[in-house]
Amino acid sequence: MSGNTEAMADLIEKGLKDAGASVDRHEAMDIDAELLNDYSHIMLGAYTWGDGDLPDDFIDLYEEMEELDLTGKAFAVFGSGDTSYEHFCGAVDLIEEKVKELGGDIVLPSVKIELNPEGDEEEELISFGKQFVHLHQQEAG
């Protein structure tokens, strides 16, 4: 995870915890995709490499996901990118497409940030985390 995406994850985690959620956080390169089976609500974040590509540290997880059935699981996706490239935050789009292809539900619009989150973007990311928890609470409620 890049420093920019890690900063995004920190802010989202704050929102999740502020809304009362417990959080298990993992680096994509350190886990097997099967771990996703242990969760009903999952947030995936990645920076975009070059012109719309997944970063090397996310590729193994992405490819391993092909073996999963994500039906009934709620997802939200976020990432950082650089608008100087034609496919801004293309990794976010690739992950979102893969989740849908495997039956997962994207429950919030993805968040894409230019490089490092600043100003209003920081509050947007905290709110993103809170919204994810509130959606789960409504489902359970």
From TrEMBL:
The keyword Glycoprotein does not apply. InterPro entries: Flav_short, Flavodoxin, Flavodoxin/NO_synth, Flavoprotein-like_sf. Residues 1-133 form the Flavodoxin-like domain. Gene3D superfamilies: 3.40.50.360. Keywords: Electron transport, Flavoprotein, FMN, Transport. NCBIfam families: flav_short, PRK06703.1, PRK06756.1. This is Flavodoxin.
